[in-house]
Write a structure and sequence with these properties.
The complex is a heterodimer of chains A (361) and B (114).
Chain A (H helix, E strand, L loop, with lengths): L4 E5 L11 E7 L2 E8 L7 H7 L3 H8 L7 H16 L5 H29 L3 H22 L8 E2 L2 E2 L5 H27 L1 H7 L7 H6 L4 H6 L6 H4 L20 H24 L15 E10 L2 E10 L6 E5 L1 H13 L7 H8 L3 H5 L1
Antiparallel strand pairs in A: 1-2, 2-3, 4-5, 6-7, 7-8
Chain B lengths: L1 E4 L5 H8 L5 E12 L2 E10 L6 E9 L15 H11 L26
Parallel strand pairs in B: 1-4
Antiparallel strand pairs in B: 2-3, 3-4
The chains are: A alpha+beta (361), B alpha+beta (114).
């Protein structure tokens, strides 16, 4: 009988951005079993949304669930409440909301790519990508007034309009970023060191993607054609040039490439939005109090973000259910680790782009 | 969104008859406290490649009735099941406390009475 040893990874570890603890059961260097503990940063946001804040305030509370995809949290909640109020936003509001969501996707994907580069020992590439990412952070700050917690979306519209100066900044920075992403694609595809670390490592098979309900870039890298942008009609994504990005090998390399190609697609979509911005008000009256139950799905950078909101015509809501992408991805992640080398675990984990702040909420 | 009411005793059979892994994406398990000791349990699915197709199976239960686990059918369901065990203090077959709260915690924060 072979002996096994247990090796923990986290909750505090040099390769982790956020607290999560894996307990790996290893046979020599090979991982044969995994246990995950994800609850280190539980803050009781769902409870706060129904006990401490009125429905008009909750959009700003749920934005605090996550620092990277704050905009998708406030958007999902806002859409759910607007459905309960019978409010439909005009096209200008929809376009401005899509613009911020896609900008968010770009900078979030770049953070993940930087982190996977760092885990491959490529510190210089990490610094380079994080530097390039500032182009998008600057645009988001200029549009919303905030760098991380944007508080840009509110019930009935958005809080700021685009000015000609902002449009010029968006075009300039997206143009600069396009060249940099082209260079990154070449580097991630051809660099020998990165290929050793990424190709054929941390494979999620398509069958397992279905069985474990993988989502977002994790699923699309395995060839599972799922993207909420193509599965909901809340936003006119077809009109702005959305394309579903799919890979087939399901390894770290494929996940990196889904993200890189999605950045290219998101840049094109942002340019289309700015060039074809409909005329209209940015804030309209959404009257009444939420009554009934609504569900909303939005494609966050890590995959499907799901909100269920139930109200009974009062200022306080009955239930706000938040299902975040990383929460759903944990079972698939655990499956990918099995059979992998322990030494690859940090790089595999980084390629999942886990957000524990979202997961534990 | 379609909502389909089922009973707790038949949940596994009802969802087994409906769920095809390559057709339906399992979103999550959810609980909503209805007051007076009642709770609405929801099992939520969306359909791959079809716009706005969300199906919610739901059953009304109380705090103490054991809830069947879907893990034998949907392996990823354990996360949502552990969450409702923590948040509502429910008993789900095979699901342990301690996902978010301490394992020995007596709290159930999303119950209406708490």
């Amino acid at each position: 009988m072979k002996k096994t040893i247990q090796i923990p990874l986290g909750s505090q570890h040099i390769s982790l951005l956020e607290p999560i603890r894996f307990k790996f059961e290893c046979e020599n260097e090979k991982i044969i079993g995994v246990d995950a503990d994800v609850g280190f940063v539980h803050r009781g946001v769902e409870l706060a949304c129904t006990r401490s804040f009125e429905f008009k305030q909750v959009g700003y509370v749920v934005a605090r669930v996550c620092g990277l995809c704050a905009i998708t949290h406030s958007l999902s909640y806002t859409l759910a409440v607007e459905k309960l109020l019978g409010f439909v936003a005009n096209d200008r509001i929809k376009y401005l909301r899509m613009l911020m969501v896609e900008l968010d996707r770009i900078h979030s994907h770049m953070l993940c790519l930087a982190h996977t580069a760092e885990n491959a020992g490529f510190e210089a590439l990490f610094m380079q990508i994080m530097g390039d990412r500032e182009l998008i952070m600057d645009v988001q700050e200029a549009i919303s007034g905030n760098r991380v917690q944007f508080d840009y979306i509110s019930i009935g519209g958005v809080n700021r309009d685009l000015t000609p100066e902002l449009v010029a900044l968006i075009h300039k920075n997206l143009g600069l970023l396009t060249d940099k992403i082209d260079a990154l694609i070449g580097l991630f595809d051809n660099n020998w060191s990165l290929s050793l670390k990424y190709k054929g490592v941390g494979v999620l098979r398509l069958e397992d993607a279905y069985i474990y309900n993988a989502l977002g870039p994790l699923a699309r890298a395995a060839g599972l054609a799922t993207d909420v942008r193509a599965e909901t009609s809340d936003f006119p994504y077809e009109d702005i040039g959305y394309t579903m990005i799919l890979e087939s090998t399901g390894d770290i390399h494929a996940r990196n490439f889904v993200r890189l190609r999605e950045i290219v697609n998101s840049i094109a979509m942002c340019q289309n939005i700015v060039n074809n911005l409909p005329v209209g008000e940015i804030q309209e009256k959404a009257k009444g109090k939420p009554n009934g139950e609504a569900v909303v799905r939005v494609e966050a950078p890590r995959g499907e973000l799901f909100y269920l909101v139930r109200g009974s015509g009062q200022n306080m809501l009955d239930r706000v259910r938040i299902k975040t992408p990383t929460f759903s991805a944990i079972p698939a992640m655990m499956e990918v680790f099995k059979g992998s080398e322990y030494a690859d675990a940090p790089a595999i984990l980084a390629s999942f782009d886990p957000c524990m702040s979202c997961t534990a909420k | 969104m379609r909502k389909i009411e089922i009973t707790l005793s038949t949940v596994l059979n009802d969802i087994r008859a409906f769920y095809l892994p390559k057709e339906w994406h399992f979103l999550s398990v959810n609980g909503i406290d209805l007051g007076e000791g009642k709770i609405e349990l929801q099992w939520i699915f969306s359909k791959y490649g079809v716009k706005d197709e969300v199906v919610i199976y739901y059953a009304i239960s109380d705090y103490d009735t054991p809830i069947p686990s879907l893990v034998s059918l949907i392996p990823s369901a354990f996360m949502g099941e552990r969450e409702i065990v923590d948040m509502f203090g429910l008993k789900v077959e095979g699901a342990e406390r301690g996902l978010y709260l301490d394992e020995d915690s007596l709290a159930h924060p999303l119950r209406g009475e708490s």
